[in-house]
Write a structure and sequence with these properties.
The complex is a heterodimer of chains A (about 90) and B (about 450). Chain A is mainly beta. Chain A has 1 helix and 8 strands. Chain B contains 16 helices and 22 strands. The chains are: A mainly beta (about 90), B alpha/beta (about 450).
Chain lengths: ~90, ~450
């Protein structure tokens, strides 16, 4: 996992209370992905872990909780400094 | 009530989707004295194909993404954002009686328009195989999106699938310096024979074919392990993708797989708006029906580009020009004669774009094993975790169509609203009941097509 020629500003965010780094302009899916965070939610019935599939707002696999609000599409949300992200429930 | 009505913003044309088709429409329609809105659910102009192009205009990236991509930049530069209302990050959740409802920054707005152009583009066709819900298994388009938007590459990924876009993404990944573990090509051997008869016409677009051959040469040159004509693939792992297994017992260890089973039109908004559709046998997708001016069965709603039928970026732009000239004529902004002339020229353009299409459609039609599941435990509906065996049992209790399967099983009832299982359901239903697939109704798509908070709905501006 790496980046090439991205000179955007570094920012920090938390996922499940742990601090991570991302670049300005990343969406939340990309920010989780670059940090190798394995999953962002578990399914309701079987509790199987899921992570972003389509990265374009269609599959709804990337749902997370952001600043206390659940059911947010990570790939449709830009990560900002200090954002508190948690796995969706 | 009358107060509320007065507040609704009125437009002459609302364009939905700011990809090639949507932007081209706006460019054609702007500066004619019409009130135009361009709504898009991304942060930036360009759609998926021209994603983030405005921020990728560096010498290094120009080498990587090549000329096709930067045509998007030229197109965006033609857009006069002072003369239209461009609303980014808008999630459109309903169209009803030429009123468009969208959510933007946690609040919903209703606007009214005399005409609507829907240009929602394409999405990944479902790829219902064992383990495709495991974290680490992603659509190949997501590799490209992360690359364009955040310059992210994931090393040691395995690419699984077929289709023009599939090879294109892999090629870009190689150019970006990514290490690719293997390519599992699922294009059926039979397709090469079937496609052969369309080759002469495709040769009229020889540049396109050469580009394809160039990709294959590149894979060879980089000594990437290729598995061809694969018809059985399984993703394995407990909480995460750990390995991919093939029919002959081969295992490939990997945590990342980018999979691609071709593209399909992203149709939920069109269907919710009431546009008539058809099952296209050639591509095995649901396409939207239109007349020769791209007007759908709903008066004043036009559907263009890959959101109508997947025919690529050039066709999308030409369809935008056709719809726009008809709309300009309807508003009396151009003469009948001018429209006729334009229409004639654009129709020729469309025909020229189509030379390659039959060849590509036949060559890259997925193997039946990847259209309809072969194993009971395959997840058909990702959102509601409905398996193939559950869908089959609902057919045994005499479900007459995909909508009754949906009621019995919740297949298609989750957050994505059938986008990633609708086509699979049709395939299963047709295969198991013997009913011809084009006689089956698709899922009934209702408003809202995206989840909206009740608070927002109650306070529509």
């Amino acid at each position: 996992m790496s980046r090439f020629s991205n000179f955007n500003k570094d920012i920090t965010f938390t996922f499940n209370d742990k601090v991570y780094m991302a670049k300005q302009g990343d969406n939340v899916s990309a920010a989780l992905s670059i940090n190798d965070i394995p999953y962002n939610r578990k399914t309701f019935d079987n509790k199987t872990p899921r992570s972003s599939f389509c990265h374009m707002g269609i599959c709804f696999e990337c749902l997370v909780q952001i600043d206390g609000v659940s059911g947010i599409q990570a790939c449709k949300t830009q990560v900002v400094e200090g954002m508190e992200i948690k796995e969706d429930v | 009530m009358s107060n509320l009505k007065k507040d609704v913003k009125e437009y002459d044309v609302v364009i939905i989707g700011a990809g090639p088709a949507g932007i081209q429409s706006a460019v054609e329609l702007q500066n004619h004295g019409l009130k135009i809105a361009l709504l898009d659910d991304s942060f930036k102009l360009g759609g998926q194909i021209y994603k983030n192009v405005e921020n990728n205009d560096t010498e290094e990236k120009r080498k990587l993404f090549q000329e096709d991509y930067y045509q998007g930049l030229a197109l965006i530069k033609k857009l006069d954002l002072n003369s239209i209302d461009y609303i980014s990050n808008a999630s459109i959740w309903s169209i009803s009686n030429l009123e468009v409802f969208y959510s933007h920054n946690n609040s919903s707005t209703k606007i009214r328009s005399k005409k609507i152009i829907i240009a929602t583009g394409a999405m990944e066709r479902p790829f219902p195989i064992e383990g495709w819900t495991l974290p680490g298994v992603m659509g190949a388009t997501s590799a490209q999106i992360m690359l364009k938007e955040s310059s992210i590459i994931k090393d040691n990924a395995v690419f699984v699938g077929t289709g023009p876009l599939f090879y294109y993404v892999i090629s870009q990944y190689i150019d970006a310096g990514a290490k690719i573990k293997a390519i599992i090509d699922t294009t059926p051997a039979k397709n090469y024979i079937k496609a052969f008869k369309y080759l002469p016409k495709a040769l009229l677009k020889v540049g396109y074919l050469m580009k394809g051959l160039g990709f294959l040469y590149k894979f060879k040159k980089h000594k990437i392990k290729m598995y061809n004509f694969t018809d059985v693939v399984k993703f394995e792992g407990s909480d995460n993708l750990e390995k991919i297994s093939l029919k002959d017992g081969t295992f490939i260890d990997t945590n990342i797989a980018f999979i691609h089973n071709g593209l399909a039109p992203n149709i939920n908004l069109q269907l919710q708006a009431g546009c008539e559709y058809e099952f296209a046998q050639k591509t095995r997708t649901i396409n939207i029906k239109t007349d020769e001016f791209m007007q759908s069965s709903v008066d004043n709603i036009y559907v263009i580009g890959d959101g109508k039928s997947v025919r690529g970026v050039d066709t999308a732009k030409t369809e935008a020009k056709i719809a726009s000239s008809k709309i300009l004529r309807d508003f009396d902004k151009i003469e009948e004669e001018v429209m006729d002339k334009k229409f004639f020229a654009y129709t020729k353009e469309l025909e020229s774009h189509s030379y390659i299409r039959d060849f590509l459609d036949v060559l890259y039609l997925p193997h039946i094993n990847f259209l309809s599941p072969t194993k009971d435990e395959v997840v058909v509906c990702r959102c509601e975790e409905v398996t193939f065996s559950t869908v089959k049992s609902s057919l045994e209790i005499d479900c007459k169509g995909v909508n009754s399967v949906k009621s019995f099983t919740r297949c298609g009832m989750g957050n994505c609203q059938g986008r990633f299982c609708g086509l699979t359901l049709l395939e299963i239903m047709s295969e198991k009941t013997g009913i011809s697939i084009d006689e089956l109704n698709y899922l009934k798509i209702r408003s809202p097509i995206k989840p909206v908070r009740i608070e927002e709905m109650a306070n529509i501006k």
